[in-house]
Model the fold of this input.
Amino acid sequence: MTDDPRAPTGQADLHVGDGALSGFAGRLDEIEIGLRDSGLTPDSVARLAMAESHFGAAIPAVSQLSGRYEAVRTRLEEFVRTRQEAMEALAIVTLLSERGYEAVEDEQLRRLQQIMGGWESRYATQQAAATTTSQGGVGGGVGLTL
Done:
């Protein structure tokens, strides 16, 4: 036992067998390709957009339906994009864990930074929107997102 508070205690680090992370990264790549090949991409969801006139403009409730449809479609598009990016980021991080920072291609590191930067930007935008939504109105000041 040591008096150094920074010294690790308990069990040793998790040992992963040689090649185990490469196999995991390969499976992630296969899943990502399968998801992309399924046709559910951010672009395919974006093509589901419908003009308000497609719903009919004579009834006010139809206008609300159009707005809600667009909100849900936008959220789905964001979810699909985030899911694809998360799979890609997980594969890159797995390679980083196995090979080390120096042994991973610069292109992959730049892509990981791009993904993380995009997430941070979208999160900041969502937080700002939630703050704006919670300012006034009814409903106890809690921002409602679909």
